[in-house]
Design a protein that fits this description.
Length: 188
């Protein structure tokens, strides 16, 4: 829906067809919803993050997506075009991790306000080994020296122990649905 909103000033036949498809999808899934079933083996708060490098054909900007779960239940998600152009897949994934780290801090503070113990770090899961390596490596390399300082927020949070970062295979990364078109069978 947000992608369709970028064409509000000049709708074409493709956008009208996409809008009709979206409305049919929403009508067909009106009875679907989120259910909350606490899982005793799940962590209090964890997040999955993903990016789709240069996904926008017009601006070549990447798409950030993340999903946060409390006790295994989805409570927060975001899909947004990144504000700057990423020069590599690693950079796009790292920028997505930085956005997710900021959301993790907000959610941790919210849960603490509700009286939840947040002594353990929040785990961020990513399917990008290169972004995880950059987040863990304090040494600036030639390939990453151009990355804006604000994206290194994730590195600071890792060092502070507020979050941890771990690899998750792409097929297990729930945030993929926010950044890429998925096969029909993955929706059901």
């Amino acid at each position: 829906a947000s992608l369709l909103g970028t064409f509000n000033a000049a709708w074409g036949s493709h956008q009208v067809a996409a809008a009709k498809h979206l409305l049919r999808y929403l009508r067909g899934t009106a009875t679907h919803g989120l259910t909350f079933k606490p899982q005793s083996d799940a962590s209090m708060l964890d997040g999955l993050t993903d990016a789709n490098w240069a996904a926008c054909q017009d601006s070549r900007r990447s798409t950030t997506g993340y999903v946060f779960r409390v006790l295994g239940n989805t409570i927060s998600w975001k899909s947004k075009k990144q504000t700057t152009v990423a020069l590599s897949t690693m950079e796009a994934e790292y920028m997505a991790m930085s956005d997710a780290a900021r959301q993790a801090i907000f959610l941790r503070n919210l849960l603490q306000d509700f009286g939840k113990d947040m002594q353990l770090p929040t785990q961020l899961l990513s399917d990008s080994n290169s972004a995880l390596a950059l987040a863990d490596d304090p040494v600036h390399h030639d390939r990453s020296k151009h990355i804006d300082i604000r994206h290194h927020f994730v590195r600071d949070q890792l060092r502070a122990g507020t979050i941890t970062a771990k690899h998750v295979p792409s097929q297990d990364n729930t945030a993929d649905v926010l950044t890429k078109a998925l096969a029909r069978d993955l929706f059901f």
